[in-house]
Amino acid sequence: MPPTATPITPTTTSPAPAPASAPGPAAGPNPAAAPNPAAGPNPAAGPDTVLHAIRTHTRSENPSAFLAMSRGTLAFTAPGLDGVIAYRQAGQYLVQLGGPFAAQGDYLPLLERFLDHARSRGLGVVGAQLQRADAEIYARQGFTVNQFGASWVVHLPGFTLQGGRFMRMRNKISRAFRNGLEVSEVPAQDHAEAIREIDANWLRSKGEAARPLEFLVGEIGGPGQAHRRLFVGTIGSRPVGYISYSPVYGERAGWMHDLSRRIPESSPGLMEAINSHVIEVLRAEGCPWLHFGFTPFTGLDQENELPGHSPAFQWLMHFLWDQGEALYPAQTQLAYKDKWAPQAPIPEYVAFQGDTASLAAFAHIFRACNAF
Amino acid sequence: MTDHTTPAPETVPEAAPESGPQAAPAPDSTESLQQQLVQSLMGIIGAPDDAETARAADTVLRALDARLAGRAAAA
């Protein structure tokens, strides 16, 4: 079953936040910041607290909110404030996943406490995968906000693989099934060995220096696993690939095509075949939306930029789309997502403290993802 | 984001001039600043904790911001 849509939190008045114009690492620790000692990364903010926040506080409509449940991602909370900020530390930066998942009246106070917390430790803050609603708030608070890429989504009612657009994909899918592919939904804990084997083969195929990404990428296992769905493809009883789907909450509730891996020498059309099977399952369940998640450097459009954005960083995003394959294979990733005829891209943003973008902060988003 | 990458900073191409032959751009040209910006990013990836590298990158980014903003204003 698809996750339940969550209600919009009623509007309340929020106190004025501190400006975001005093960035962290270069500025050093600021003893005058006087952070609230009770606010911070909160081990007591367990998965239930995070899950409650991302299910309840969905005004930003972040399709990747469930990534906040990943192991290794921290939850920042503050006493008396309803919500969490999901983040990881990389070097001298705290890298946020999206904006605060917080009640409307607590959104800015929680962000303010988080900035205080970072400032008191001499750290900077950079926000990744902010949605438009987050981006507008951050820009008003003095951040420099630029488009980082886009997320992609398919509306399932009425979706069909019929028609000329999908002919090549239908052929690939047919070939995979003719090669003996069978797809089934399985409990991850019962298939740990198969997942390990697929992962090991997949990683080997990426070369000696390959590192599996984390943080802005899903995972299998941990406290979030009970809420995900795992579909495994087998050929002759050998597991050859899988796709993990994470729940998406809010107005576009549904599932996100998240972690996907396959044994490289297995059948062509494998992932397409698994996903086409899942689409039929989800459609039968009445699920309205299948998300394909965020791809950096894609869907870039001048119309999406906010006042005060950095034109140099905007140029860099276009450059990395065109020639940044070694940093992130955006074109390859988008080619897969585009096969499914997604709707118009949903822009996602990066927010930098201060009056322009920061390459160091940007690089640390990738560092937080274990890219280097 | 999809789940793999193998960053290889040395393999990321330099920004190419927008037009014309592949001659080296003038040191203060927009194309040169764009090349420097890409090189700065790769420098940070190679030395992410180096404050001087980060500061130098900020300088390049601000210069390119000013150049591109000036272009937009003139257009």
TrEMBL record, chain A:
Residues 1-49 are annotated as: Disordered. It is found in: Cell membrane. GO terms for biological process: phospholipid homeostasis. Residues 16-40 have a biased composition (Pro residues). The lineage of its organism: Bacteria, Bacillati, Actinomycetota, Actinomycetes, Kitasatosporales. GO terms for cellular component: plasma membrane. It is a multi-pass membrane protein. InterPro entries: Acyl_CoA_acyltransferase, LPG_synthase_C, PG_lysyltransferase. It comes from Streptomyces typhae. This is DUF2156 domain-containing protein. Pfam families: LPG_synthase_C (PF09924). Its main location: membrane. Residues 56-352 form the Phosphatidylglycerol lysyltransferase C-terminal domain. It comes from the Bacteria. One of its GO terms (molecular function) is aminoacyltransferase activity. Residues 1-15 have a biased composition (Low complexity).
TrEMBL record, chain B:
Residues 1-18 have a biased composition (Low complexity). Residues 1-34 are annotated as: Disordered. It comes from the Bacteria. This is Uncharacterized protein. It comes from Streptomyces typhae. The lineage of its organism: Bacteria, Bacillati, Actinomycetota, Actinomycetes, Kitasatosporales.
